[in-house]
Amino acid sequence: MIEFIKPQWQAPPGIHAACSTRRGGVSKAPYDELNLGLHVGDRVADVTANRQRLRQALDLPAEPGWINQTHSSRVVTLEQDDNRDADAAITRQPGCVAVVMTADCLPILLCDRAGSEVAAIHAGWRGLQGGVVQATIGAMQSAPQQLMAWIGPGISQACYEVGTEVFAAFTGEVAGAESCFQASRPGHWLCDLGGLAAMVLHRNGLDDVTRSPHCSFRDAELFYSYRREPVTGRMASLIWIN
Q1: pTM of the predicted structure, to 2 decimals
Q2: CB–CB of 87/71 below 8 Å?
Q3: Does 191 reside within a domain?
Q4: Residues 116-163 pLDDT 10s
Q5: Which CATH number does the domain housing residue 88 bear?
Q6: Which residues of 216-237 are buried (b: 16+ CB within 10 A; e: fewer)?
Q7: Which of 10, 53, 172, 213 has the greatest number of C-beta atoms within 10 Å?
Q8: pLDDT averaged over the chain?
Q9: d(CA 189, CA 171)
Q10: Is 172 within a domain?
């Protein structure tokens, strides 16, 4: 049976969102069970079957608008852009499903209070530091104060050790980013990626930001984790206007 994580936020009526787990699909180890990524080495037939199960379980109005994620800051509008090389997708068309895939990186879902536009963002540390959140907010028609965000399951600070390049990338550009790093050993820090994402969202005008408590690395029964298992599947976080 397919299991989902639902955002605990006050989205307006007509906005639907969910994050898949690894439970309920047909993929075999090491992709077991509900792998939704075609790019990770899993059998195409299994991924196709998993995507069909996802669509049926969520009663999706259309096939999700899958994008080719490249750890960039490029944003596409699904009903307008044919080039799907991007790390964020926006839609204002009812029935069009925005989606990103993750396995430790953060999925960030956005909607406006009027329920007229939604977005899905793939935010690893490179994309987050590179401005994918700011680019998405800037591409939306709503004022930032009219947007709300949900930061979905990703790797937690206790499980995410990074080196000097990550520490320097954020602390050199984001005031106060030091609070999201805890020294672990010489030249290494435990990084609160979700905390950094929330900081970026707040500083770009969003007041309503909700974080999932789930850790993709720690909960191996529920989530895929690239850091835990380099050969693994991907979850999907989806949002759409009914």
Answers
A1: 0.96
A2: yes
A3: no
A4: 999 999 999 999 999 999 999 999 999 999 999 999 999 999 999 999
A5: 3.60.140.10
A6: bbeeeebbbbbebeeebbbbbb
A7: 53
A8: 97
A9: 12
A10: no
